[in-house]
Design brief:
With 247 residues, this protein is an alpha/beta fold. It has helices at 20-31, 43-51, 72-75, 101-128, 143-146, 152-172, 190-193, 197-206, 215-226; strands at 11-15, 35-40, 63-66, 83-86, 134-139, 177-184, 237-240.
């Protein structure tokens, strides 16, 4: 099927849709014909993304929703989307020796517990309505595999997201629900804008493809995993890193 029509009339939920990778995912899925729910904790950002979306081909329209992925109340009422990309995430970096317990808890709560709550809510809704198939994409990080100085909390949360996704893939395959994880490397977004320039240039020098990635390059992979083009793929983690930390 041509990429431009792969997701026609599919209801899709994108968390963290107000910025960076999540926004690019919303734009990519909408351009393929999906009806997109832009979910974000920031109402203003979600509406900014909504305003940038191409109209879906069946005219069902897109919508913005204020959602805190780390709160069960906030995630339990979703209509069953057949595609979900959970891109909401935060960093609160510090060296391990100085890290506040609160900073550890906050990052685990949003990145790991948030992924669990969204994945569980979507899967429960799909199973309850007897939907024949679903595709859930979580966003981990390459640092969940290799670690990163100053990111004990974040790398632990992202390693957890991978384990969660693999387990979900095993449990949910009998319901026709596929679960896969993307592992971005260093991508230009507001999240990495906070990283000091000297760290960025050192990281770039380590990337075999010689540059940071663009949010759209992660969104392309999410769209593939969301679509039936990946129908025989579940439980994988796909690195989108320009070759950073190969092998
Ligand atoms: P970003 O800061 O640009 O976007 C994150 C979005 O998540 C924001 O719109 C924010 O409002 C939203 N958000 C934060 N907490 C939320 C919550 N509790 N509920 C709902 N929404 C919430 O960051 P990004 O770089 O686009 O990151 C997107 C995802 O990609 C994150 O999971 C991040 O960890 C992951 N990631 C990013 C990179 C990178 O280099 N940028 C690398 C690896 C992984």
């Amino acid at each position: 099927m041509a990429a431009a029509t792969r997701l026609i009339s599919r209801l899709t939920l994108v968390t963290g849709g107000g910025s960076g990778i999540g926004r690019a995912v919303c734009q990519r899925l909408a351009s393929e014909g999906a009806s997109v729910v832009v979910a974000d904790i920031s109402e203003e950002s979600a509406h900014d993304t909504l305003g940038s979306l191409q109209r879906d081909l069946r005219g069902q329209g897109h919508m913005a929703a204020v959602v805190d992925v780390s709160s069960k109340e906030s995630t339990h009422y979703f209509q069953p989307p057949s595609v979900c990309v959970n891109a909401a995430g935060i960093t609160q970096d510090d060296f391990l020796l100085n890290m506040d317990e609160d900073h550890f808890d906050n990052v685990i709560r949003v990145n790991l517990k948030g992924s669990f709550l969204v994945l569980q809510a979507v899967a429960q809704a799909l199973v309850a309505c007897g939907a024949p198939k679903g595709s859930i994409v979580t966003v981990g990080s390459i640092v969940g595999k290799v670690g990163n100085i100053g990111q004990a909390n974040y790398s632990a949360s992202k390693a957890g997201v991978e384990g969660l996704t693999r387990t979900a893939a095993k449990e949910l395959s009998r319901f026709g629900i596929r679960c896969n994880c993307v592992l971005p490397g260093f991508i230009s977004t507001p999240m990495t804008d906070k990283v000091p320039e000297k760290v960025i240039s050192r990281m770039k020098s380590l990337v075999p493809l010689g540059r940071m990635g663009e949010p759209a390059e992660v969104a392309d992979v999410c769209a593939f995993l969301a679509s039936d083009d990946s129908r025989y793929i579940t439980g994988v983690s796909l690195e989108v890193t320009g070759g950073l930390f190969i092998g």
